[in-house]
Amino acid sequence: MLTSGFLYAVLALATYVQAFPAFGSLAGMTREQLDAIVPTLKYAKPQNPPGPLNDTSAKLVNDAAHPWKPLAPGDIRGPCPGLNTLASHGYLPRNGIATPVQIINAVQEGFNMENTIAILVTYAAFLVDGNVITNLLSIGGKTSFTGPNPPAPATVGGLNTHAVFEGDASMTRGDFFFGDNHDFNETLFDQFVDFSNRFGAGKYNLTVAAKLRAQRIQQSIATNPTFSFVSPRYFTAYAESTFPINFFVDGRRNDGQLDMTTARGFFQNSRMPDGFFRANGSKGADGIDQVAAGAFIAPGGNVGKVNSYTVDPTSADFNHFCQLYTDFVQKTIFGLYPSPSGVLLDALNTNLNFLFLGVQSSGCTQVFPYANLTSTAPTKY
Ligand code: HEM
Ligand SMILES: *[C@@H]1O[C@H](CO)[C@@H](O)[C@H](O)[C@H]1NC(C)=O
Ligand SMILES: *[C@@H]1O[C@H](CO)[C@@H](O)[C@H](O)[C@H]1NC(C)=O
Ligand SMILES: *[C@@H]1O[C@H](CO)[C@@H](O)[C@H](O)[C@H]1NC(C)=O
Ligand SMILES: *[C@@H]1O[C@H](CO)[C@@H](O)[C@H](O)[C@H]1NC(C)=O
Ligand SMILES: *[C@@H]1O[C@H](CO)[C@@H](O)[C@H](O)[C@H]1NC(C)=O
């Protein structure tokens, strides 16, 4: 019988499908939602990730072909000052919607990020926050999507999505618990400056990075009852503390000391200084050992109230790097996509193969959450 409740659900689903953006993530959707949405999307077969740059020398990257421009209406920016800046200089599409290959090319060309870390970070973020059918990722959230509820999922994806990649205790962005996990926060940046003054004579360097990382962890423990600091956030938090040093310091200086005017330009305005040269040689999380040593805490989190930090022995840590990868695939990805088929399965398996390229050289063994299906001619999803 066609009850009004049923009719409402059908209409709500139809509105939802109509409003669903091509870059919205399918992660965590029910079978019903996938059945409604996947057929409306055009499958863009994933392209192979680019290899390393052939020329990794420092060079002018704030050049005539890549001028900074202010945001146009609808342009999306998010929690990552690196990607925000690449979009505002046209290394990425200025609207903030990009493919994984565009992101890898941009971080390599614009900042000299090392190839395997670029691959690892990009495919990890893309698999949980991007749309694997259309091959698009939002570097922030959404602009105009307002889905009905139910059956809308809590989010349409993008890098603002909390807990699968974005996480707590960021240097210049607040914790999700406090309501805004992606915009530049002046109070937090003031603390960044204060720590740079106290421990770096006015510059952000690795000594400051370790002090500030420890401070942000302690602040989250003391104020955020939902504070979570387990893999993958555990790793990205320490790694990201080194990025301003490795990527925001002009490649001709290369002295690991970041001045505050340049820092504000990147963190707040997504802007490179005039005449900016990228790093001299490709870099990743160089210096992470020093940050981790100076700000060490075992992975864990608060358990529903402040000051209740409890170690989580099941999380990957620095002694179990490959577990970062295997848990991410077998728990996170598999949990978000428990039974994919057709083009969705094809897209997931292909992107999982690309993700593995980011850890292969670290000696990790590939894991396959969906049996060992490489590619069967996809007809359904
Ligand atoms: C390779 C692709 C990349 C992806 C997918 C990515 C993604 C992200 C995400 C999701 C965050 C938020 C994490 C959080 O604080 O909760 C973040 C933070 C950050 N990213 Fe990226 N990122 C990438 C490359 C880069 C590059 C090339 C740079 C530097 C040039 C960079 C610099 C940073 C910094 C400094 C933060 C920390 C911000 C803060 O703590 O306030 N990222 N990134
Ligand atoms: C490096 O050079 C090779 C050979 O010319 C080329 O195929 C490859 O695309 C280049 N790599 C990049 C990242 O441009
Ligand atoms: C910025 O962060 C501070 C400190 O966590 C917080 O009190 C404040 O509400 C945040 N500001 C905004 C605009 O979110
Ligand atoms: C950071 O700057 C301070 C003050 O100049 C200096 O004592 C410290 O050695 C620097 N640390 C690094 C890693 O450059
Ligand atoms: C980059 O580093 C190399 C090797 O240390 C050096 O010869 C070169 O001059 C540096 N390039 C720039 C632009 O500083
Ligand atoms: C998956 O299948 C490919 C192709 O049949 C094979 O080469 C590979 O060894 C298999 N891997 C595992 C882990 O079974």
Bound molecules: protoporphyrin IX containing FE, 2-acetamido-2-deoxy-beta-D-glucopyranose
Do you know the CATH architecture?
A: Orthogonal Bundle
CATH class: Mainly Alpha
In the CATH hierarchy, the third-tier topology is known as Chloroperoxidase
Q: What proportion of the residues form beta strands (DSSP E)?
A: under 5%
Describe this structure as you would to a colleague.
Residues 1-19 form the signal peptide. One of its GO terms (molecular function) is metal ion binding. The protein has 381 residues and is mostly helical. It has one domain (24-362): Chloroperoxidase-like (Chloroperoxidase, Orthogonal Bundle). It has helices at 4-19, 31-37, 81-88, 100-111, 115-129, 186-200, 206-223, 233-247, 260-269, 288-294, 321-336, 342-357, and strands spanning 97-98, 137-138, 203-204, 228-229, 258-259, 300-301, 310-311. A hairpin with an 8-residue loop joins strand 6 (300-301) and strand 7. Helix 4 packs antiparallel against helix 5 (115-129) and helix 6 crosses helix 7. The longest helix is centred in the middle third of the chain and has 18 residues, at 206-223. The protein is globular, with a radius of gyration of 21 Å. 48% of the residues are buried. One 2-acetamido-2-deoxy-beta-D-glucopyranose (NAG) binds at residues 50-51, 53-54.
